[in-house]
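Listing S7. Sequence submitted for prediction.
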Amino acid sequence: MMSTDDDVSYRRLLDEYRQRDNYDSVFRSTLDDLSNKVDFSWMQSCIALGPGSGEHEIAFIRRLLPNLQQLIAVEPDHESVKALRTNFHTSELSGLQTTVVEAPVQTWDGVEQPVDGVLCFNVIYHVEGEDRTQLLHRLKTQYLKPGGIIILIENGSPFTSGYIRLMHQLGYAQDNWYVDIEKDVLAAGFQLDLLHDIVSTRDLTNPSDGVLKYIELLFNKSVSAEQIRTYIADIYSDSAADVKHIVRKIAVFRNNSQK
């Protein structure tokens, strides 16, 4: 997982990085599309893993989880936890009881009673190897009720995407995108119920210092800001339209365990 120095706010850097794309507006349009394809009105309890400050999770709940009564959010970043609590307080989600736990998802103690669903928005990517295997096992056997669901969002961009090219040029050798994560979730015994694309754009041309610092954090500062700037300049000089495309996959996986 990423870490920051005391004088660097991960949340501030992430907010600056997100200004380079239109994901927020596309995400909300996607919720409108999904409202005609899914019925989550049966869900009354839910966990949100790694929600950051929670804007996307709150939007999802407001649009697609009309009868949710209990939400447990697990977030490791202290500044994000403070923002998350504020956002829950001001979101006016009627009848929803929220609990925020400041902890990494890998070491969280879990729930006393299984829940109906788990929101994993752009977080499983950061949980690798045996940690991921164990987390998925706990989701299936401890955290979720039989018939409960994981609603997962991860990057499924093609290799022509500038973001994917940048990650590989900076040394991210392991394939760890949606297709790989889906294999792990299916191997843990879940069933894929729905898969839907979220297509947005991201332009990292002429990155700010904050954008560079955020990408440095993705690699635990093993690469320099100057290296990142050089690779970005080369990649985003390509005029092909799909260089700036980001394709995320939103998937619903069902726990078919019988207890």
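Caption to Listing S7: primary sequence and predicted structure tokens for the chain studied. The first strand starts at residue 45 and ends at 49. The beta strands are 45-49, 70-75, 97-102, 115-121, 144-155, 190-201, 245-255.
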